[in-house]
Recover the amino acids of this structure.
C-alpha cells in the first residue's frame, strides 16, 4: 500500500466539540486536507513543539524521546493508518538500527512524538479517500477561529499590539505558568516582532 506524506497545516479550536482542537494535516503532493479532532493536552503538546517552546518540566512526549534516546532507539516515521467508525488510528515506526517495531498510538500522540523526532507523517489513500476534504478557494483563504479570540471578538494578536513590553513579559510568564503554550507562543511572536 502506497503511503502519502502529510504536513501539519494548522491547529485551531474545534467548532464541533467544546474543549477540543482540530489538527489539520495536508497532502504534501496534493490538495486534500485531513482534519483530526484532538484533546486540549495533545494540542498543547503539538503546539509547543511546533513553536519550539521549552516547558519548565518535560511533558510526556518529551519523556518518551528521552527514554528512546537512552535505550538507543529512534522513531522512523508516523503513519495515520486507519479510520474505523470515525476514529483515526496511528502507528509509530521505531528502530534500534537493526530491528523495526511498530507501536499502535492515537494520532495526536503519534504526531506529538513524531514532531520531537523530526520524522515524516504519512497516511494511506484509503484514509484520505474516506476522511479527506478539498477546500474551495474561499474556504482556504479564511483564517480558522482560535480560542485566543476575546469575548469582544478582538483577536489576541490585535490585543497584544497595544500592550507595553513589560505587560507582554508579565503575560508571557503567566501563560507559561498556566502551561497555556499556544497563548505563550503568540505572545512570544509579538515580542519577537518588536525586536
Amino acid at each position: 500500500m502506497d503511503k502519502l506524506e502529510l504536513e501539519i497545516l494548522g491547529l485551531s479550536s474545534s467548532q464541533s466539540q467544546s474543549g477540543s482542537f482540530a489538527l489539520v494535516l495536508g497532502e504534501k503532493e496534493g490538495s486534500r486536507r485531513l482534519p483530526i479532532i484532538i484533546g486540549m493536552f495533545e494540542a498543547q503538546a503539538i503546539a509547543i513543539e511546533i513553536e519550539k517552546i521549552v516547558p519548565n518540566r518535560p511533558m510526556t512526549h518529551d519523556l518518551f524521546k528521552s527514554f528512546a534516546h537512552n535505550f538507543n532507539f529512534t522513531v522512523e516515521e508516523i503513519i495515520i493508518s486507519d479510520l474505523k467508525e470515525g476514529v483515526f488510528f496511528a502507528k509509530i515506526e521505531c528502530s534500534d538500527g537493526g530491528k523495526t517495531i511498530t507501536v499502535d498510538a492515537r494520532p495526536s500522540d503519534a504526531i506529538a512524538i513524531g514532531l520531537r523526532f523530526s520524522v515524516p507523517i504519512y497516511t494511506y489513500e484509503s484514509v484520505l479517500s474516506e476522511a479527506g476534504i478539498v477546500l474551495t478557494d474561499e474556504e482556504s483563504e479564511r483564517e480558522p477561529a482560535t480560542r485566543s479570540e476575546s469575548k469582544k471578538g478582538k483577536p489576541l494578536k490585535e490585543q497584544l499590539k497595544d500592550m507595553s513590553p513589560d505587560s507582554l513579559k508579565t503575560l508571557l510568564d503567566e501563560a507559561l505558568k498556566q502551561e497555556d503554550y499556544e497563548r505563550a507562543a503568540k505572545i512570544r511572536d509579538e515580542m519577537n516582532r518588536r525586536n
Notes: Confidence is low (pLDDT under 50) at residues 138-153.
